[in-house]
User: Fold these one by one.
Assistant:
Number 1:
Amino acid sequence: MSLLRAFGIAMEGLALNRVRSFLTMLGLIIGVAAVIIMMAVSHGAEAEVADQINALGANLIMISPSFSRGGVSSQAGPPPMLKFSDIATIQQKVTGISGVSAEQNTRQIVKAGSVTLEDISIVGTTAGFMAVREYGVAQGRFVTDADNDKANEAAVLGSTIAQKLFGNATAVGQTIKIGSTKFMVVGVMAVKGTVGTTDYDSRIYIPIKTVFKKFVSSRFQRDVVGMVYISAESKDTMDSVKSQLTKVVMQILGTTAASPGFQLTTQDSIITTRTSTTATFRNLLGWVAGISLIVGGIGIMNIMLVSVTERTREIGLRQALGARPRDVQLQFLLEAVALSLIGGLVGVIAGVGGSYLFNTFGTMRTELVWSSIPLSFGAAAAVGIFFGYYPATKAAQLDPIVALRRE
Amino acid sequence: MTQMMTQIAPTEKPMRKLIEIINLTKVYGVGNVAVQALRGVNMTVEQGEFVAIMGSSGSGKSTLMNILGCLDRPTSGTYILDGEDVSRLSKNQLASVRNKKIGFVFQSYNLLPRFTAVKNVTLPLLYNGQARKSDKERTERAVTLLEAVGLSDRGRHKPNELSGGQQQRVAIARALVNHPAIVLADEPTGNLDTRSSMEIMDLLHQLHDQGTTIVIVTHEVDIASRAGRVIYLQDGQIVSDRMDASRTAAAYGHTDGSVG
């Protein structure tokens, strides 16, 4: 018997019981759709993260202090850290950079009129911030060099902070209290959103020297900066800038390559770390969805077993009319395979459509992983063959005499 | 109709042994629970005969029928069907023999309820190895046979839209579709009223007149008495094998004790 004809017989069998065939397929449809949607969602999340990190600013290099591997603790006194005056040195000695900015942060209580906000992130920074971080003000102005020179009590509010303190009223020109110091609001930042764990709209920016003056108590820490942000002129100068920075900063700090006391981070390295965690997450989701495929397969096996029992007489008759055991086996195996192929196909359509709908109407960004389509479809087919084999073999092993006598 | 029958019936051949059974036994189970269903059966059926097999339940007639139909294999002995020893064939080979040489007619018709009459008739064609035969050819063959059994206008009907007699006619058409060497009918009138029974028997006799070899199993004496030969089974052995050369009206009412 040709495979095509056997397939025809199998399809006839399924067509005669459409509702049941559909319900049987449902498990697989959901499984396949789940695999595709899950992978699209996590892939979308990865892309989102990459975009956000890129939005930190183009060709950004971050210098942060590192207290690694004991080299520091063996020395007496505080570990070497970059000071505000070193920023100028870096700008002087390193070529191929388009901007430098430093930050020193503190957390304070913020008050304006009757509104009090606890534990607000106060970012002390420089005028270079806007260029380096590609982030600007919506109203008023940002921190200027003059502000820093004089350690002015000037504050630029994140959009959420401005909203909380002043509602829809104009914030610029108002006075707020950060800690125990009065500040003049000189600007409100544009909306930036949350990148990673940082909510850029819930921060307040003030001159870094004002942070030193008002919020740093330790004499040793008085002009120490937390992070230094440097933007390279272009992607091509990144490597050169990085190697120059390593040298220059080691010189400034008086450290060696074995224990430099700082680390350089780029967007690429952040993205790589992030995506490797989300990739793990994605694989996990894929496996969970894969399990639903197996559950769907068990559903198929279940229904095929019922079907074999129900159609025992039919099997006996077909055998009497000349169907060989393997003809019967093929018929039922192909029914299971047809079920899973159709289920897989519908699942692919549902999965692709579903992730499109999520993207369009949902809050989630999804990006189809094209390899998930053949992957899940193939898995569905494999599940059909695997779980169809046992019922089909059972059918083939029926004794025609016994089968014909069954009521 | 007679013209049709000429087309579908096997071509006339010189008389020859179609079935030859030598010392056939069948044992079910083993050891203490072993049951001897057949204890050395010998019989020969010539081409073109109409044979009725009778016997009470437990006489072994069903077992004999199953072996004749290649649904079961004998424990020992030889069964030669149409010149081929089929007593030691594998399951797959037996399936092929059933498909090509045997047409089954069952008591309960055994039509697939969700298929039309035409589809039911074409069923054996799916397994006869002529995979290249088109749907159209198969349907044409089925329609021809349905005309031959007097159901030319019922091809598109499903079994539940047909009377019992009509269903059995469809089953007979199905039995003939592969040009079998022999038609095996197991209580073909068992589920039918008297009138339908007579019609079905008339049809079988018509086929017989066309040269088809027919073996029926029945417990109804008047059905058996219309056969040219009646074989009576008891305790797994043939106790009576009576030829009736002229299958005439005289055979009616012939209910002597040896058969009864």
Note: The CA atoms of residues 125 and 178 of chain B lie 7 Å apart.
Number 2:
Amino acid sequence: MAIINELFNLGTQLIMSLQSMAIGLYTWLLYVWGKLPLLLEGTLLTLELTAIAVSLGFIIGTFAGIGRLSEKRFIRSLATIYIDFIRGTPLLVQILIVYMGLPQIIGRTVPPMVAAIASLSINSGAYVAEIVRAGIQSIDKGQAEAARSLGMTSNQTMRYIVLPQAFRRIIPPLGNEFIAMLKDSSLVSVIALEELMRKAQLVYTRDYRPFDILFAVSIIYLILTLSISRLVRYSERRLRNNDR
Amino acid sequence: MQVKKNLWVLSLVVIISLVSLAADWKVAGDFTFAPFTFSDDKGNLVGYEIDLSKALAKELGVELKLVNAAWSGLIPGLNNGNYDALITAMTITDERKQAVDFSDPYIKVGLVVMTKPNRNDIKSLDDLKGKTLAVQIGATGDLTATDMKGVKKVLRFETAPEAFQAVINGNADAAVMDGPVGRYFMKTTPNKLKIAIPEFTEELYGVVLKKGNKDLAKINAALKKLKDNGTLDSIYNAWFAN
């Protein structure tokens, strides 16, 4: 009899705690709903920054990656210095150097947006360069040799034979880089750009409910990164089908 | 036998250190806010509020432990129980009172607007229309600038020096900042900025405590004693006398 009573009590407690959880969830949703326009504004800037930085970084990285494999020693060391320097220093430092240090050298103001895009894409370029280099090196030597023996110049070989195959292989690591950049872009909040993370700080420096808003922000980041990884997987599959 | 004795000594040490840890009064602040809370050339924490914290701790009979934290995380950290109090140039406002408790005020200051020395187009608050303002995120300068009508943009930085740098670099037209902080910056970094609009608000700083903290009455009594015996005045004069 006592056991049944105990079980009954446990059951009521469970229902009550579920109830309070539901109320908590409801008030949280209501709270986040109110802040959503602000957060979406920040999300848009985050996406914008990431997309531009990754695209520019891809162009920079392709050249730097090919440069690292160049037969000319000068170009090779230039690319190596760039990659080593960028990968060897924190992104936060790079952002602050471009934003606060550069104006003192060039004597001109660097707007926050320009500083952010410049530092993010230069940073991304260094990582993409290594991805591209690895991609090129993964292509069988026979491919290049065959192209050369067909009379292609080394330039043509790179453009028409090696790079197209390499790009297909580097899609997964490029997707990683995209996701990493999406998260790293939150660092530009230090130069007063109000991307997603900064919007969250803006909210909780006014109402002092950090957990509620940070939880919402992490869900937004999660949605973004999951969509990107799905997109990468999809394009990977499509390109593989083209292969046949 | 020897081992047992050692164990006794060890546990005594642990207990004593635990007790002394509990007696620590953890006061947090944003230590980039000269002349209130900052570090000198040697890395020692100095400033008006550091001296005040030390005097308060002595009066309360507790061991002071200062913690440097980012401005935007101060109140959340206090409410999480990471710190016992904040003594960090925090203005007493109605919005903040909903989240924390304040002691009686210990100083009165005001916000100023600062520009580059060669600018003459900003003389009154009306002139801020269409301008970009630099502030510290969540500070009263931020709250005031955000409420101003017609302002083009508010650039919010984590620290006051970063906001000043944005004006010097030309990314912002003016900074909205607590007066003493602006004046101290001008003293230590001459010819970079000037005060375009002198104090246009009145703000009171108080010791910040978690809501319902029982120490509030004790701290208010200690503050009153420091005020009455002239300690508060002498600390003030040490930092703000011309």
Note: The interface with chain B takes residues 100, 103, 109-112, 190, 192, 194, 198, 201-202, 204-208, 210 of chain A (CB under 8 Å).
